[in-house]
């Protein structure tokens, strides 16, 4: 190797070393900035939210988008960019979870309610939320199988699951309403949660809290004589690990805040399939 070639090689090696050092410095600078920002956020945790109570909040719903929903219609003012039938949508953030990828949920609570609605041909709208299932004894079935009250309103049985939708180390509180054909999915999910058994260190067998496990929620195409739509598919993923204990504590706290008196948001009318 000539002296000239050796010099060129040395220059290249020097440049490579300098680039590497610059990259390392930039990485350390970004890491330091991130840590400083996180520290500042932690020191001011809850700032600006002091006067917000549960009555001022609406928990986002996870909603399955159907073919006729405005969110999938590009010509509708409510269209959500990239939305398609079968996607799961967060009704507050408008975040989308695709039909096949779905989302991870830690369930924390469950409520069954009986929603009284004004018929759509009469203007529609929620009249009242009933907790007592005996309200169904005051109804009769119409040709479509709907439960109709004497005043002409109808009762919709709604099963609502509350949980944390998890994405890595971030999470958000959500509610997942199920009605019509999806009530069967709700019952199956409840059965899975109730059937899980764990043995303690003393040998005692017990049912762990629902928020000890996480589930994968996706959607599947379904149909009957009334039409076609997308429904829920719920799969048990497994138990929370030691690394997930912060999620467990958040879920436990969320569960303690759920009550029949506070539904955290107005129910949404579901398709009667």
Protein architecture, described:
There is one protein chain. It contains three helices and 13 strands. It has two domains: 51 residues; 148 residues, no CATH class. Strands 4, 5, 6, 7, 8, 9, 12 and 13 form an eight-stranded antiparallel sheet that branches. A hairpin with a 5-residue loop joins strand 6 and strand 7. It is of the alpha+beta class and 273 residues long.
Q: Name the poorly predicted regions.
A: 269-273
The secondary structure category is: alpha+beta
Largest beta-sheet characterization: 8 strands, antiparallel
Radius of gyration equals: 26 Å
Shape: extended
Separate helix tally = 3
- Taken in chain order, the helices and strands follow as HEEEEEEEEEHEEEEH
Residue-averaged pLDDT, rounded?
86
Overall number of strands: 13
Q: Helix fraction?
A: 10-25%
**Proportion of residues in extended strands:** 25-35%
The tally of structural domains comes to: 2
Terminal CA distance: 80 Å
Main attributes?
eight-stranded antiparallel beta sheet; 25% helix; extended; disordered C terminus
Task: Indicate the topology.
Elements: H1 3-43, E1 62-64, E2 88-90, E3 96-97, E4 103-117, E5 126-130, E6 140-141, E7 147-148, E8 154-167, E9 170-179, H2 183-195, E10 198-199, E11 205-206, E12 213-224, E13 227-239, H3 245-257
Antiparallel strand pairs: 1-2, 2-3, 4-5, 4-8, 4-12, 6-7, 7-8, 8-9, 10-11, 12-13
């Amino acid at each position: 190797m000539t002296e000239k070639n050796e010099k060129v090689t040395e220059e290249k090696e020097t440049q490579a070393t300098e680039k590497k050092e610059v990259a390392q410095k930039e990485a350390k600078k970004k890491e330091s900035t991130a840590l400083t920002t996180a520290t500042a956020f932690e020191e001011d945790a809850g700032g600006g939210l002091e006067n917000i109570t549960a009555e001022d909040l609406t928990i986002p719903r996870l909603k399955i988008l159907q073919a006729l929903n405005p969110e999938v219609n590009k010509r509708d003012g409510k269209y959500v960019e990239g939305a398609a039938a079968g996607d799961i949508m967060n009704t507050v953030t408008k975040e989308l979870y695709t039909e096949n990828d779905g989302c991870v949920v830690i369930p924390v609570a469950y409520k069954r309610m009986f929603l009284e609605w004004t018929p759509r041909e009469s203007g529609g709208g929620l009249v009242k939320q009933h907790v007592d299932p005996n309200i169904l004894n005051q109804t009769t079935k119409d040709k479509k199988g709907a439960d109709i009250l004497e005043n002409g309103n109808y009762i919709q049985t709604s099963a609502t699951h509350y949980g944390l939708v998890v994405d890595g180390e971030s999470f958000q509180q959500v509610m997942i309403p199920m009605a019509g054909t999806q009530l069967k999915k709700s019952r199956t999910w409840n059965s899975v949660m109730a059937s899980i058994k764990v043995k303690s260190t003393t040998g005692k067998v017990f049912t762990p809290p629902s928020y000890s496990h996480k589930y994968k929620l996706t959607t599947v195409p379904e149909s009957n004589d009334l039409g076609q739509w997308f429904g829920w598919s719920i799969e048990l993923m497994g138990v929370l690990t030691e690394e997930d204990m912060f999620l467990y504590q958040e879920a436990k706290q969320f569960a303690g805040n759920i009550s029949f008196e506070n539904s955290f948001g107005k129910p949404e009318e579901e398709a009667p399939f």
